[in-house]
Amino acid sequence: MSGAQDTGPGARLKAARRAFKQMFGIPDFERYCEHLREHHPERPLPTEREFHAMAIDRRYGAARPRCC
After folding, report:
1. What confidence tens digit (pLDDT) does each residue in 8-23 have?
2. Domain tally, the chain
3. Does 15 fall in a domain?
């Protein structure tokens, strides 16, 4: 039964890690990959390094309006 596995220590640790990342605005690579697999299966999955580079560019890139 998968319900029993979803409440184990590993699942709770994973949920806590995700909550921590959300609280501090840290991009979640695993969640992004799950989203791509579910909603955009035609797109290739990036490496973790590529994902973080995209997240940094999205947040601090030159394309965004800057205040200074």
Report:
1. 888 898 888 888 888 8
2. 1
3. yes
Asked, for residue 66, whether it belongs to a domain, the answer is: no
As given in the structure block, the two tokens for residue 51 are 């994902």
Residue 35: give the domain boundaries.
2-60
Which phi and psi (to 5°) does residue 7 adopt?
-110, 5
Residues 24-66: tens digit of each pLDDT: 878 889 889 999 999 999 999 999 999 999 988 888 886 656 5
Three-state SS annotation for 6-67: CCCHHHHHHHHHHHHHHHHCCCCHHHHHHHHHHHCCCCCCCCHHHHHHHHHHHHHCCCCCCC
